[in-house]
Amino acid sequence: xxxxxMTSSLTHSAFRLGASHAGFRTRCAxxxxxxxxxxxxxxxxxxxxxxxxxxxxxxxxxxxSVAELCKGLNAGKIADNVDIVVAPPFLYIxxxxxxxxxxxxxxxxxxxxxxxxxxxxxHHYDSDTGAFTGEVSAEMLEDLDVPWVILGHSxxxxxxxxDNVTVGKKVAHARYHGLSVIVCVGESLEERESGETLxxxxxxxxxxxxxxxxxxxxxxxxxxxxxxxxxxxIGTGKVATPEQAQEVHAAIRQWLxxxxxxxx
Length: 264
Fold this sequence. Notes:
Elements: E1 13-16, H1 33-37, E2 42-43, E3 51-56, H2 63-74, E4 77-78, E5 82-87, H3 93-99, E6 105-109, H4 138-143, E7 148-151, H5 154-159, H6 164-176, E8 180-185, H7 189-193, H8 197-212, E9 224-228, H9 242-259
Parallel strand pairs: 2-4, 3-5, 5-6, 6-7, 7-8, 8-9
Antiparallel strand pairs: 1-9
Helix pairs in contact: 6-8, 8-9
């Protein structure tokens, strides 16, 4: 995947219910356009089912670097059974949509607002006011035909204080407005070392399932991707092995089999 002086990863692994998805790790946006010109993209699926690659550009990019990155992505080779979703900063979504080959790449927003204090038995969570300075709503993304959104990313949870309940409401609200969702789950180093990995992840999933399970506007079907993000392996010097990721994958699939619509 394209890489440069500044890189970041959306998640270490992901899968979507209804289809088998291999794990992924992707390196994303750089502020140095020259780095992209020296790279090429080759994405292929060596497992069964479909493979999904997600690139979160985080708070990186300029008009020039986004143009170069999109050019490099368009020039890459991608297998037919691979889905690619990229998430530029809000200001560059329109540029990415215009520049990328729409047949091969889908664009995601990095967040969508919800009025988290709302109590809504319909689980739609539409606000009656727009008095939320600095936020971007699911309705706006729907209006712009942005098909995907990332919710529950570890940086939103830890830096912005988003709890499980808020993430669950965000997922329901986004799905009500037709957005496909990448839901990020994962545990910290302290939680892993204390043996709380699955308890933490299941609680994160439970909050989402409580909002969208068996609702007419959303389900655990092809419109929701669960991305496992071992937070403890980011910037700590520790490495998450494929075996550790697959162990969590298996546990998530088993949990979903008994708690989510659609099975695993």
